[in-house]
Design a protein that fits this description.
It is a multi-pass membrane protein. It comes from Poecilia mexicana. Keywords: Membrane, Transmembrane, Transmembrane helix. This protein is mainly alpha-helical. The longest helix has 26 residues. The chain starts with a helix and ends in an 11-residue tail after the last helix.
């Protein structure tokens, strides 16, 4: 499973790099999305450390973390579209970057689905 996640991350970054580095596009503005890739899991990781998961009811810290993560992910999809509308990047580069976004965020989601439970195979023990 871990090799599938690493392969997904590599494919997503390949699409991002293709959207930047192909001679037809040759603009590196979409690399700002790397900040969104790094920032997206941070609110949820912090809330997992702060909140006790024994309570089955929803709490404000976890809801805020999901809200912030959703805002980061939507911003990551909106930025290339804004760049393309402002003619900073080409629409083909926008399509490649959005494809990379889907793959990368799917990989991040897959990581938290596989390693997010509180058993012996959890990422929190690292």
């Amino acid at each position: 499973m871990l090799t599938d996640l690493s392969f997904g991350g590599a494919i997503g970054l390949m699409f991002l790099m293709l959207g930047c580095a192909l001679p037809v596009y040759d603009k590196y503005w979409p690399l700002f999305l790397l900040f969104f890739y790094i920032l997206s899991p941070i609110p949820y990781c912090i809330s997992r450390r702060v909140v006790d998961d024994t309570d089955s009811a929803s709490n404000a810290c976890k809801e805020l973390a999901i809200f912030l993560t959703t805002g980061i992910v939507i911003s990551a999809f909106g930025l290339p579209i804004i760049f393309a509308r402002a003619e900073v990047i080409a629409w083909g580069a926008c399509a490649l970057v959005l494809t990379g976004n889907v793959v990368i965020f799917g990989t991040i989601l897959g990581f938290f689905l596989v390693f997010g439970s509180n058993d012996d195979f959890s990422w929190q023990q690292w």
